[in-house]
Design brief:
CATH topology of the largest domain: Rossmann fold
Distance between the termini: 40 Å
Largest sheet: 7 strands, mixed
CATH superfamily of the largest domain: Flavodoxin domain
Number of helices: 7
Oligomer: single chain
Helix content: 40-55%
Number of domains: 2
Structural class: alpha/beta
Strand content: 15-25%
Radius of gyration: 31 Å
CATH architecture of the largest domain: 3-Layer(aba) Sandwich
CATH class of the largest domain: Alpha Beta
Order of helices and strands: EHEHEEHEHEEHHH
Amino acid sequence: MDILIVYATNSGGTYLAGQYIQDVLQEHGHQVVLKKAKDTTSQELGQYQVVIFGSPSWYVDGREGQMHWDMAKLLDAIPDALLHKKQCAVYGLGDNSYAYFCGAVDAIEIKLAQHNMQIVVPSLRINEFYYQPDANAADIKQWAHKLAGRVSNTPTQGRKKIPSSISETKEPAVIRLSKRLMVSIAFGLLLGVLFEHVVIGLLFGIGVGVLATSKKQDSV
């Protein structure tokens, strides 16, 4: 599947976490793009089958536990219905010593719900990314593996079914009946040539063809 990881970051932690996620998803055969929120347009979000949002929690406008301003700006610019039923996931970095641990995740989830997007796995909240690098890396990868399996098993909205065999691609009834009539006429001509009665063979072929097509039309 085509997946976009869009992130905002202050010290690079959300970017590094996004790289872990990207690597795991690519191991599962997905096509994954990792891109900054400030370099992403709202229209680009609609071009991918799955969108993953990542942000640290920050102090914005006197409020603790808010999403990064670049992410907020991107989400505020999404037109109505653009991402309706779009599959998505959320990850966030924070510090559990604050009152609103990974509050950015909650704020992003609210925005996604307003656009009727489908969060396919529980959101990931990462505590003290740089202070517990090994444990956090393991948790991120485990979450990414779960996400990879979930999006693989979720039907893609709006994709057309490709016929698995030629028999699934049906010709119009008029064309099929015309072909049967032509085959019957050709068969009648062949019999006429063999028995030196071309006219009789032709009439025989037309008669058989008309009879066959009329019966077919009754069963359509």
